[in-house]
Automatic annotation (TrEMBL):
<dbReference type="Pfam" id="PF03894">
    <property type="entry name" value="XFP"/>
</dbReference>
<dbReference type="Pfam" id="PF09363">
    <property type="entry name" value="XFP_C"/>
</dbReference>
<comment type="similarity">
    <text>Belongs to the XFP family.</text>
</comment>
<dbReference type="InterPro" id="IPR018970">
    <property type="entry name" value="Xul5P/Fru6P_PKetolase_N"/>
</dbReference>
<dbReference type="InterPro" id="IPR009014">
    <property type="entry name" value="Transketo_C/PFOR_II"/>
</dbReference>
<dbReference type="InterPro" id="IPR019790">
    <property type="entry name" value="Xul5P/Fru6P_PKetolase_CS"/>
</dbReference>
<protein>
    <recommendedName>
        <fullName>Probable phosphoketolase</fullName>
        <ecNumber>4.1.2.-</ecNumber>
    </recommendedName>
</protein>
<feature type="domain" description="Xylulose 5-phosphate/Fructose 6-phosphate phosphoketolase C-terminal">
    <location>
        <begin position="590"/>
        <end position="792"/>
    </location>
</feature>
<keyword id="KW-0786">Thiamine pyrophosphate</keyword>
<dbReference type="Pfam" id="PF09364">
    <property type="entry name" value="XFP_N"/>
</dbReference>
<dbReference type="InterPro" id="IPR029061">
    <property type="entry name" value="THDP-binding"/>
</dbReference>
<dbReference type="InterPro" id="IPR019789">
    <property type="entry name" value="Xul5P/Fru6P_PKetolase_ThDP_BS"/>
</dbReference>
<dbReference type="InterPro" id="IPR023962">
    <property type="entry name" value="Phosphoketolase"/>
</dbReference>
<keyword id="KW-0456">Lyase</keyword>
<dbReference type="InterPro" id="IPR018969">
    <property type="entry name" value="Xul5P/Fru6P_PKetolase_C"/>
</dbReference>
<feature type="domain" description="Xylulose 5-phosphate/Fructose 6-phosphate phosphoketolase N-terminal">
    <location>
        <begin position="12"/>
        <end position="373"/>
    </location>
</feature>
<dbReference type="InterPro" id="IPR005593">
    <property type="entry name" value="Xul5P/Fru6P_PKetolase"/>
</dbReference>
Amino acid sequence: MRDASTSAHDPVTDTELANLVAHWRAANYLAVGQIYLMGNPLLGEPLRPEHIKPRLLGHWGTSPGLNLVHTHLNRVIKARDQDALCVWGPGHGGPAVLANSWLEGSYSETYPDIGRDADGMARLFHQFSFPGGVPSHVAPETPGSIHEGGELGYSLAHAYGAAFDNPDLLVICVIGDGEAETGPLAASWHWNKFLDLVHDGAVLPILHLNGYKIANPTVLARVPEPELDDLLRGYGHEVLHVTGDEPYAVHRAMAEAMDTALDTIALIQRTARDEGVTERARWPVIVLRTPKGWTGPATVDGLPVEGTWRAHQVPLPAVRENPEHLRQLEAWLRSYRPEELFDHDGRPLPHVLACVPEGARRLGSNPCANGGLLLRDLPVPALEPYAVKVERPGATLHEPTRVVGDLLESVMEATSERRDFRVVGPDETSSNRLQALYGATGNAWQAAVLPVDEHLDRHGRVMEILSEHTCQGWLEGYLLTGRHGFFSCYEAFVHIVDSMVNQHIKWLKVSRSLPWRRPIASLNYLLTSHVWRQDHNGFSHQDPGFVDHVLNKSPEVVRVYLPPDTNTLLSVAEHVLHSRDYVNVVVAGKQPTFDWLTLDEARAHCARGLGVWEWAGTEQEGKEPDVVLACAGDVPTQEVLAAAQLIRHHLPQLALRVVNVVDLARLLPETEHPHGLSDSQYDALFTRDRPVIFAYHGYPWLIHRLAYRRAGHPNLHVHGYRESGTTTTPFDMVVRNNMDRYQLVMDVIDRVPGLAVRATRARQAMEDARLRHHTWIREHGTDLPEVADWTWQPETGGDDGPPR
């Protein structure tokens, strides 16, 4: 452990210290005012109940500690001309960050109606946690923020994501001791092992131990200090402590700790960049121990508050109704001596702002926190050199993700100098057939390297860690600070980040309504190793429900694509890499898949989002079909086309239409999603009254939910994954879930009026094929030759012979 006093930087003078304390007092006053006041902001008259908000919302307990950090960040940023960004892990400390943004002037520049004067202060107070105002968290509305913190666990991953490929940026991350108990945060202490000393910035974690969560003590605040030091040292950090409750002593210690930390960081980076030292560094971390609710009421109604869990939210809950609470609130506010901090017009006095940096150096004005300001178009090459040749549908097979891996390699190579594109994934880049990326870069890695290792690179831009939480957090931080990225993951385990993607979608939805927030690159998921091809992993790896989860979210933000072959995946990849302010979910297999469309056809099909594949059906021009076979996903598409071929053979007089869906949101009404179809468009494709047999990649009820308002919904019959999985052959998976070609044909026979009587022999042939399948796989361990060797035959007519 290093004491803060070991800093080589000149200590703060008494005048500087007094100004720092004054700034901190002002921020505390503004934080309390936001929680309680809707009038009388400068206490120009005695406080009355009508000055108090009718509903008291917000979090006081963490605010004084955050105000302390913000005050001292101002000092070191100004003194060192430091490019800095802060991630506020205790996001419910919104009053503190808003207060500091208003003090430094960035808030008034962003919202001119909230000036840095008494009227602006009154509006700042009134809007907080008030209808039509701003949330209590450090939300998108807060200048300088990239992390809301409403859901705990992700602050440090966001901080490292922001630091990657930002060599001059210092990212401070304040971690609350409640958040420190979460699994994602606990794993995040390892991320210093991925920080490139040459090309990345630095992350300074500040572990704020105020002792309590909402109602209980926190683990790290109660373990003995030597044990905590051993833990953090084991994670690769050098520990600096700041502890106390006497303001001047704590401020002096905090100044010394910040100087020591920044001196250490500067030395680490200088020796790496100027002297070529490549050994992994031991980065500083500050452990800050101050009381929860510091400077607030010591007791309320005879119970201790300051320094306890009771200070977490609103220490004085009944100010309007209880005269004693009102008296305590006024005494609390006046304890900060606002007359010494603000002039008669409510403007902060010069000594209060002495520590505040100027312009873009202010934490609320750093362009990295409004990443769209820095975003450059991604150099995605033309697709023609990567497209597979398709002379006729279904004649060849390719691994779609392997081909898109070639495209991503070119993007990675094209950004090798500007370094603003990364691919993340949980140890699956090669498994997901994206290993072409290693032709342009390696896996980021700063720890030991052994001779047997492959693709490890201190400067690599593929990020692999067996933690989906981390991949998500890294990528969010990277995107929010103005860069591009791609997240490759096994389909079943992307569910681990369900709640994280919720928060990012909410952030994007709100950001889109803020004109000063510039659009950022979309968060792009490639979900592969999917439900239908888990040949050796089995049931535990079979879950296609992430799509359902995402499509529940804000329709203006979410997009879901299921390209059926290689060229459509290329087209979708090109689109999502260029898109802005979306969460794009792309589901595509890595196993050999039939090629159905040329590149030009794929582009047109993806632009439509869905369409009729005339070459696969048997309907006549100008006449409605007898039945529609629809599909979404690579395996469902193959089964539908195999079923169509069987229908051509066994039921040549049946008018069949085949519809393929790439963009699932197209099934929604246009009033529900920007990509939705009008009723007339939907009916033109699926008809109003003919049976629609739909083979879908995921849970079948999702398709019903998307289309339930359509006139033809009673005729919609969906086949998909029905939670029947195991380790088995590829075709047995679709048989187990009743999505196989034979079942689809039987469903057509059963659903088309009058067909069952005329097609008895054909239906029996389908049943016999399924029985033959069950016997065969148990004897041979492989699929039937007629399935394993199947190819699309464009013209099949004939008799009622055995299915092929």
